[in-house]
Amino acid sequence: MKHTKKNCHSSGSNAIFAKIVMRKSSLLFSALIAFSGISKAQQQFTSADLVGQLNVITTMVPFLTISPDSRSAGMGDVGVALFNPDANSTHWNTANLAFATKKTGFSVSYAPWLRQLVDDVGFSYLSGYSKLGKNSAVSGSFRYFTLGNINFTDMEGNPTGSFNPNEFALDLGYTTRFSDNFAMGVNLRYIYSNIVGSGLRNGIDYTAGTSVAGDINMIYRNQLKIQGKRLKYNVGANIQNIGAKMTYSSREKRDFIPTNLKLGVGVNYEIDAHNEVNFYLDINKLLVPTRPYYLQNYDNTGDSINVGTGKPVLIGYDPNVGVVQGMAQSFYDAPGGFQEEIKEITPSFGMEYIYDKTFSIRSGLFYEAQTKGARQYLTLGMGLKFQSLTLDAAYLVPFRSRHPLQNQMRFSLLFDLAALSDQ
Question: Could you tell me the sign of the dihedral formed by the alpha carbons of 22, 28, 32, 38, in that order?
């Protein structure tokens, strides 16, 4: 059976097979470098020779790293230490909901994906929370990523059915204060990914991938007075997607999901009774192994094996480890050494001007190293609040590589209900 897609949808198939193509390209790239390096002694090849080489970290279900809401998306994808927490905090930092000033809130967001190429790929997000008194809150969210519709045909071109690749994650969270300034939260997550369909193809039995994961997060909030002006600051941290590896086939090796460390700081400055400005800085680091550089002896699995020892011959560390080991190893396993490790840290900057707590203007910058994916873009955003309803919008302008959300608006609707009487 061959698989084709109608002309109006043909570009959407790129999203389905991007992970497979990236993996094969990475293997081919490593193979070519290894082949060219055979002519010189292995002892002469060091980590310094790998600095500046393309080495993107790939994981399963990357949709978990998409910024779900337009407020943060308009500020360079910051969100770990936001002021005025809302329903979308269940993604960025559930602990922040312990300081929410409304008893209940929920939000709905939608982001079209690759809209310049296809019209049936998109990301949807629904989230909500409810306070349990002054100090605690429960939350939940549902995110859904659809990759469009694929039409199947046989070898003669006759239709044999269709398939809609899709992924989703369901979250439940809880947070509580431990003091007036400090709170911690946790999320539990069920992940489902079906991008290859089910059934036997080429001797491999494919099926949907599933996993369970969790987040651990915290936030500290305080304030200073400088020349009579109040300066608030937040410091937050979130380790996301700590969970089991996934696979689409029992014959494939299980791959890591995007376990990610987010650290953030936010500063709020009240200009006067009606004007204030927020500044944010987030730092992200994937806590999954970096692919090493294999030196020689490629076998039919794409790995480099020493015939004598049966172990890979490589610069870096073997990525075939457990989840906990992979998280620890991610801080020191880059084959290019410390210089490459630094490039795996991705900063984002954001600022937000708020007038009378009803109108906001936002901007931000996201920067990823050229050798680690080259996502580098400027974001713009705005928000308008009317009573309990807030409308947020965001717009993305890429600097280098094309981006699935470039040159298009995305929107979020936020509902905050019932102010707490004790806050």
Answer: positive
User: Two tokens at 264?
Assistant: 């953030």
Q: Which residues are bridge partners to 205 per DSSP? A: 200
Backbone torsion region of residue 184, taken as left when φ is above 0, otherwise alpha when ψ lies between -120 and 50, otherwise beta: beta
Taking the mean position of all CA atoms in its chain, how far away is CA 221? Answer: 25
Determine the pLDDT at residue 203: 64
The ranges assigned to domains in the chain are 2-419
Q: Across all residues in the chain, what is the average pLDDT?
A: 82
Query: 203 CB contacts (<8 Å, ≥6 apart)?
Result: none
DSSP assignment letter at 116: T
pLDDT score, position 33 = 41
What global pTM score does this model have? Answer: 0.81
Q: Which amino acid would we find at residue 210?
A: T
- Spans of the chain, pLDDT less than 70: 1-51, 115-117, 152-155, 160-161, 200-203, 251-252, 296-312, 401, 418-423
- H/E stretch holding 240: strand 229-243
Let me know: does 360 contact 72? Beta carbons within 8 Å. no
Structure tokens at 320: 């075939």
Sign of CA dihedral 103, 350, 241, 390: positive
Q: How far lies 331's CA from each of 25, 44, 129, 208, 213, in Å? A: 24, 25, 34, 31, 21
CATH C-level class of 2-419: mainly beta
